[in-house]
Each structure stands twice: as structure tokens, then as C-alpha cells.
Amino acid sequence: MQGPHSPAPPVDVQPASWRDLSSIRELEKLCFGRDAWPWIDTLAALTFPQTVRLKAVSDEFVVGFIFGDQRRLKRTGWIASIGVHPDYRRRGIGRTLLVACEDLLGMPRVRLSLRGSNDAALRLYQQAGYVRIDTWKRYYRDGEDAIIMEKVR
Ligand SMILES: CC(C)(COP(=O)(O)OP(=O)(O)OC[C@H]1O[C@@H](n2cnc3c(N)ncnc32)[C@H](O)[C@@H]1OP(=O)(O)O)[C@@H](O)C(=O)NCCC(=O)NCCS
User: Fold this and answer.
1) Model pTM?
2) Separation of 120 CA from ligand 1 center, angstroms?
3) Which CATH superfamily is domain 11-112 in?
4) 13 Cβ contact partners less than 8 Å away, ≥ 6 residues apart
5) Where do the structural domains in the chain lie, given as residue ranges?
6) What's the CA gap between 39 and 13, in Å, rounded?
7) How far is 3 from 5, CA to CA, in rounded Å?
8) Tens digit of pLDDT at every position of the chain (153 positions)
9) Which residue's CA is minimally distant from atom 25 of ligand 1?
10) Using a 6 Å CB cutoff, which residues line ligand 1?
11) What secondary structure, in 3-state letters, does 55-88 show?
């Protein structure tokens, strides 16, 4: 049992697989609500080749995940999705997942998209060295614009 002054249990970043489908689905719903992917897309991200999939595990619970795609012809990696359980945020888990995914993608540049209103993600990406390169107008179903960011490694 954790006392009030016990240190938080360590978080381990590990490869994810189809066996993590239900835990990651739960996390996606918590993190994205109406924007959560259909389960078939999550299953695809957990099984397709040229995809990096990682999970953050604490005390045997999956508390974070990240998916990245390799677009080898364009020498570009894309961060497709990242989420951290609300109770585990601001502990560096998102940053750790992002760096690990970039390393495994192994591409000279990495891109991603985010909602214009997603300040937490914007700050995470800025702090990690991403810069804004484009806006995709009305990209999301509710009409919000997407910001496109890029990191050159
Ligand atoms: C975005 C998200 C993945 C960040 O995960 P996290 O584990 O909390 O991030 P970290 O603790 O690694 O934060 C790293 C840095 O990002 C910035 N940051 C992260 N969350 C922030 C917040 N809520 N407000 C301001 N800055 C924030 C800070 O600079 C932070 O460094 P610091 O804590 O030393 O100041 C998490 O908030 C989340 O799952 N959000 C919902 C899903 C989502 O929006 N995903 C991104 C879609 S594009």
C-alpha cells in the first residue's frame, strides 16, 4: 500500500502488442473521449508493420502509450497517437514515450498533428524540439484546425 510519502512506483517503457488492446482502448477513451480511435484502428496500430508501439507500465498497469508510423519513402516518422492516464500526468511519462518512439522510428524528421486547443500537447512537443510547420483547416470532425509540427533530428 502506498503511503502519502512513498515514492511513485517506477514507470517502465516496453513494446506494446495486440495483447494490450483492451488496456490501451480504455486509456484512449480516458485521454481522447469523442476523438478516441475506432478499436479496429487501435488493433491495426498494434499489429501493422512499420509501426512503433510502446506502452508505459507502472505496477503492471498500462498508464501510457504511443504509436508512431514510418514513412520510409519520405524519410519521415509520424507520431500517430500518444496518451497518458490522467492520474500519471506531469511525471515525464509523455516525454519519455515520445523520445523512445522517435529513436525507434529512426527517421531524420518526425511530424505530428494536434488540436489547436491542446495546450498540454503543444507544450510537450515544443519542449521536445518540435516546431509548427503547417495548419490543416477544419481537420477534426467538429471543425477545429489541426496544427502540424515537425522535429528535425
Ligand atoms: C499530452 C500528454 C500525453 C502529456 O503527457 P505527460 O506524461 O503529462 O507529459 P510530461 O509529464 O512528459 O510533460 C513533459 C512536458 O510537457 C509540458 N506539459 C505537459 N502537460 C502539460 C500541461 N498540462 N500544461 C502545461 N505544460 C504541460 C511541460 O513542459 C512538461 O514538462 P514539465 O512537467 O517538466 O514542466 C497528456 O497530457 C495526455 O495524455 N493528454 C491527453 C491525450 C492527448 O492530448 N494526446 C496528444 C494528442 S496530439
Assistant:
1) 0.96
2) 5
3) Gcn5-related N-acetyltransferase (GNAT) (3.40.630.30)
4) 54, 55, 56, 57, 96, 97, 100
5) 11-112
6) 22
7) 5
8) 455 566 677 899 999 999 999 999 999 999 999 889 999 999 999 999 999 999 999 999 999 999 999 999 999 999 999 999 999 999 999 999 999 999 999 999 999 999 999 999 999 999 999 999 999 999 998 999 999 999 999
9) 120
10) 31-32, 82-84, 89-95, 114, 118-121, 123-124, 127
11) EEEECCEEEEEEEEEEEHHHCEEEEEEEEECHHH
Q: In sequence order, which residues have a C-beta less than 8 Å from that of residue 50 and are 6 or more positions away? A: 69, 70, 72
Residue nearest to ligand 1 atom 41, measured at CA: 31
What single-letter amino acid sits at 81?
Answer: S
d(CA 79, CA 113): 8
- Helix H, strand E, coil C: the string for the chain is CCCCCCCCCCEEEEECCHHHHHHHHHHHHHHHHHHCCCHHHHHHHHHCCCEEEEEEEECCEEEEEEEEEEEHHHCEEEEEEEEECHHHCCCCHHHHHHHHHHHHHCCCEEEEEEECCCHHHHHHHHHCCCEEEEEECCCCCCCCCEEEEEEEC
